[in-house]
Amino acid sequence: MLKAVLFDLDGVITDTAKFHFLAWRELGKELGVTVDEAFNEELKGVSRMDSLERILAFGGLADKYSLAEKEALCTKKNDHYLELIQEMTPADILPGILPLLEELRAAGLKTIITSASKNAPGILELLQVKDYFDGIVDPASVAAGKPAPDIFLAGAALADAEPAECIGVEDAASGVEAIKAANITAVAIGDAEVLAQADRVLPDTSALSLAVLRDTWEK
Ligand code: B16
Ligand code: MG
How many whole angstroms separate alpha carbon 205 and alpha carbon 11? Predict the structure, then answer.
């Protein structure tokens, strides 16, 4: 039986992906590294420090900074990101998400946030959707970030469900890889080529419904 839906946040519940992109692009400029939209795809779903490491490696700067300096760069990026997201309101919830959350609640399915973002609780508050979720996995509590399966396995455990009783919803290739590595059914939102590993790819969140999730899970 399908018991739980494990939701990525950025790019699924709301489009914070564009704010992450703007903040990394700005930091990249200061470091002399060009972060364009194509490269940004590789940062989606990836933790803050791992994203910085990828940017530095891309710019040939992998060994240039100490850990303390890298932490300061991450803080700088996050401060800018927090400034950008402050204006978010419930109007920024992506299409189809609220009706889906209502459907899931009515059907008695568990809903868990499995986001790599340490800002997830604050963003759910801004969007006023926190009460729709039964739990939020703390990304700092898992050993390895996406594409490792840890956060989705922790999400299933938090829902008191087996991986086979869950479905995961993601917008990032690293996230889909993590869901599949956890032996969980994956529904992806976005480009079918980038997200080819998913069990089903939908062009955007408005196509999400309990019926689509069940249909994908049953196949
Ligand atoms: P933070 P998700 C991920 O969230 C973002 O996709 C990724 O771009 C970001 O670097 C990561 O969260 C960490 O976010 O800096 O807010 O802790 O897609 O897993 O919901
Ligand atoms: Mg995402």
Answer: 9
Return the number of other C-beta atoms located less than 10 Å from residue 33's C-beta: 18
46 Cα–ligand 2 center, Å: 9
Rounded average pLDDT over 114-121: 95
- ipTM more than 0.90? yes
Would the CA dihedral through 124, 126, 127, 128 be positive or negative? positive
Query: Where residue 41 falls among pLDDT bands split at 50, 70, 90?
Result: confident
The verdict on the CB of residue 116 being under 6 Å from ligand 1 is: yes
| Helix ranges, 33-149 (H) | 37-41, 48-58, 67-85, 97-107, 120-127
Quickly count: other Cβ atoms within 10 Å of residue 49's Cβ.
Answer: 14
- Render pLDDT for 130-186 as a digit per residue (tens, 0 to 9): 999 999 999 999 999 999 999 999 999 999 999 999 999 999 999 999 999 999 999
How many angstroms separate the CA atoms of 72 and 130, rounded? 30
Helix axis angle for 210-218 and 97-107, nearest 10°, is 70
pLDDT band at 218 (very low <50, low <70, confident <90, very high): very high
Q: Separation of 45 CA from ligand 2 center, angstroms?
A: 5
- Determine the Cα–Cα distance for residues 43 and 21; give it in Å rounded to an integer: 9
